[in-house]
Every structure is written in C-alpha cells, then in structure tokens.
Write a structure and sequence with these properties.
By secondary structure, the chain is mainly beta. The chain has one domain: Lipid/polyisoprenoid-binding, YceI-like (Lipocalin, Beta Barrel), CATH 2.40.128. The chain contains 1 helix and 11 strands, in the order E-E-E-E-E-E-H-E-E-E-E-E. An 8-stranded antiparallel barrel has the order 1-4-5-7-8-9-10-11. A hairpin with a 3-residue loop joins strand 2 and strand 3. The longest helix is centred in the middle third of the chain and has 7 residues. The chain starts with 33 loop residues before the first strand and ends in a 6-residue tail after the last strand. The N terminus is likely disordered.
C-alpha cells in the first residue's frame, strides 16, 4: 500500500543532463541571467518508485513555491529555493496518498514542508548541476540534480519564461521514509530507490537581456 533494489548510498551518482534537441526548444533571450519565480501551474515536481518489484508508481506534489537567481556568467552565484507542501502529494490513488501522509512516510502533521535550498551551482554549456540541502521529515541531506535547459519564451501575457528538466535518484531511507513489507515471492513491496523528476517553468522578475 506504500509508495516507494535496496541501495546503501544516499544518492546514486548524478548522470549528466541530456541535451534537449534544438527543434524542441525556443529562445526568447540570449542571456538567462536574472531573478525568477517558479510557475506552479506549469511546473511538475514528481517522483517514481518501483512497487512490488514489477512496476513503477508515479506521483507528484501539487502545492509548492520557489525562486531562482540565474547568473549565466558566474553560475556559482546562482541559487534556487523551493518549499513543497508535503500534504499535497498525489499518486492518483486516495488510499495510497493517505498512507504517504502518515508517519510511515512524510508524517505531514509533524513535518508539513519539504524544502530544497541550493548550496552550489555549476554549468557546462546548457547543462546545470544544482547541489543543495533537501529536507524531508526534519532530515537534511545534500543532493545534486543535473538540469538541462529547455529554452526560453515570451508568453502571450508578456512574461519571459525559462525552462529546465532534471532527474536524480535518492535512497528514501536516508530521510526516514522507512516503511517496508516483504513479498511472499521474495523482494520487497516498495523500493528504497526513488527517482525525483523536475519539469520547471520559471517567470522572470527582472527582465532578461533580449
């Protein structure tokens, strides 16, 4: 009934972000530098984990807010901060979502928010590695998320938007997400390995350079 192979490492080595094909991107600005607010209505903060050793369960968080400062010339000066409401977790199944909110997993009554605050940012062409402190259940661990630029655009309302996609894999038990059940046929109900998935659209607060 839970969500989330066993891994002894807190985080698997981050694979480089795959470049986005040029025909699938747009470019409204030549310099992404500026301050941005994440648009929650066009952003997905999701996850997937193997269930019963045979398939994957996918979910996401529906309530969150975040800001980013992008410095293309000096990437180390860039920063990201995101706050997620843990109770907004959804997997398309009400019973499973209810279980995820209990102390077996996110314990939303005692730890209502999940946060990520960057500590280092590196850039190699259109690939960005964002390292930061991820806090779940009151436990803080460092993770690195490789992101690929998906482009920039000016929407019909005059907003400059930039987009990024990224994934990384963590071991949920490092954040006290320890619920487990053994299967009669061997193995476990919920994998400890969880893939975090990010599709981000952010709106410029200070006009980027055209």
């Amino acid at each position: 009934m839970g969500l989330f192979t066993r891994s002894s490492a807190s985080q698997a080595p981050a694979a480089p972000a795959a470049p986005i094909p040029a025909e699938e991107t747009s470019s409204a600005v030549s310099d992404l530098s500026g301050d941005y607010v994440i648009d929650p209505t066009h952003t997905r903060l999701g996850f997937s984990a193997r269930h019963a050793m045979v398939t994957k369960v996918r979910g996401q968080f529906d309530e969150f807010e975040g800001t980013a400062h992008v410095d293309a010339a000096n990437p180390a000066s860039s920063s990201v901060s995101v706050t997620i409401q843990a109770a907004s977790v959804t997997t398309g199944n009400a019973q499973r979502d209810g279980h995820l909110k209990t102390p077996d997993f996110f314990d939303v009554e005692n730890y209502p928010q999940i946060t990520f605050v960057s500590t280092d940012v590196e850039r190699n062409s259109g690939a960005w590695d964002v390292t930061g402190d991820l806090t779940i259940n009151g436990v803080t661990k460092s993770v690195t998320i490789p992101f690929a630029e998906t482009g920039s655009a000016k929407d019909p309302f005059g907003n400059i938007r930039i987009g990024f996609e990224g994934t990384t894999t963590i071991n949920r038990t490092d954040w006290n997400l320890t619920f487990q059940a053994a299967l009669e046929t061997g193995g476990v109900l919920v994998s400890e390995k969880v893939t975090l998935e990010f599709d981000v659209s952010a709106i410029a607060q200070v006009p980027a350079q055209a």
